[in-house]
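User: I'm writing a tutorial on reading structure tokens. Could you give me a worked example: one chain, its sequence, then its tokens, then a sentence or two explaining what the tokens reveal?
Assistant: Sure. Here is the example chain.
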Amino acid sequence: MSRRSDVLELAVLGILLDAPVHGYELRKQLNALLGTMRALSYGTLYPTLKSLLAQGLIREAGADDGTAPALAGKRARIVYELTAEGKERFQTLVRSPGPSAWEDENFGVHFAFFARTDAASRLEILEGRRSRLQERLEGVRQSMARTRERLDRYTLELQRHGQESVEREVRWLTELIDSERAGNMTHLVDPDKSVPPG
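And here are its predicted structure tokens:
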């Protein structure tokens, strides 16, 4: 899963897994899931919804019957829901954690659906993300060592901040991996079981 549209597909299917949602509410939930730095426009969302409809992964459940009176000329909101094929596609996406699952663009979306991801896939994503960040950290350290004398103090401070941020995430991932291996993630529900593990 390397393209932004693939991540968006996973996010849309994951949100619709809980309940049918109309486009406006779906966009709000996606923005919350993807983060404020990656605000999602309708110009991005609606082509994705159109594609998912064409693939038979979602369907229009009907108009949203809100309590507010309809305005003249205003269209009713369309409510989208998952089909059985959409549920299968979601499970395929969360259980196929390739290298793109631990990239910056994709990791947060995968992590948001860990409660519906099997333990082996969760562990693979966490370990892959940690490995990727450790590689990045080594690169930052080497760069700082080579360029320290040539940079002003503000640029050095920015690099130090970046290094500390990556180190902090590596520690967090290590704690999650250790807990996952020990079976201490009792707040997560394995999708193959009806009760929480542990």
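What the tokens reveal: The chain has two domains: 4-63+78-105, 118-182. The first strand starts at residue 21 and ends at 22.
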